[in-house]
Amino acid sequence: MVNAQSFAYKTLLKGVYDSDFPVIYPDNDSLIGKAVLLDTREKREFEVSHLENAKWVGYETFDLEVMKTIPKDQVVIVYCSIGARSQEIGKKLQSAGYTQVYNLYGGIFHWVNEGKPVHNQNGATNAIHPYSKTWGIWLTRGVKQY
């Protein structure tokens, strides 16, 4: 069943991602480790859990002003639940002159499904906000917290 879901998830992502927007995979620890991580989900999603050291920037409320202290040549990785919202924020960053912007492949869902850690204000957690019950089907690990 996992392989079927993986194939279905890959198919979903193919339909969501622009082929010319760069992605980075969760196993690229060296690049992820030196990047600025931007969580483009809504505040409640971020509060449930996020990638360690990620900065919340939101989607509906995103403002380039939050980037004023980040150099334009800094590696920036954007993410959301699956990568659709983050890709849109990533395009805004590229348009603003950021030269090394990547979308986290599969978003935080794929990250968690790969067994990678997430955190909240208290430290490591197994909780993950699935955005909605419909989107939650793509989460195979973690504890769904709406």
Overview of the molecule:
Helix 3 links the parallel strand 2 and strand 3. The protein has five helices and nine strands. The strands form three sheets. The protein has a five-stranded parallel beta sheet. The model has no long low-confidence stretch (mean pLDDT 95). It is of the alpha/beta class. The protein has one domain: Oxidized Rhodanese, domain 1, CATH 3.40.250.10. This is Rhodanese-related sulfurtransferase. Pfam families: Rhodanese (PF00581). It comes from Belliella pelovolcani.
Give a quick summary of the entry.
31% of the residues lie in helices and 19% in strands. The protein is an alpha/beta fold.
Radius of gyration: 14 Å
Using the 3D structure, state the CATH architecture.
3-Layer(aba) Sandwich
Work out the helicity level.
25-40%
Shape verdict: globular
- Total beta strand runs: 9
Q: Which class do the helix and strand fractions yield?
A: alpha/beta
Give the integer mean of the pLDDT values. Answer: 95
Largest sheet: 5 strands, parallel
The CATH topology corresponds to Oxidized Rhodanese, domain 1
List segments where confidence is low: pLDDT < 50 over at least 5 consecutive residues.
none
Distance between the termini: 25 Å
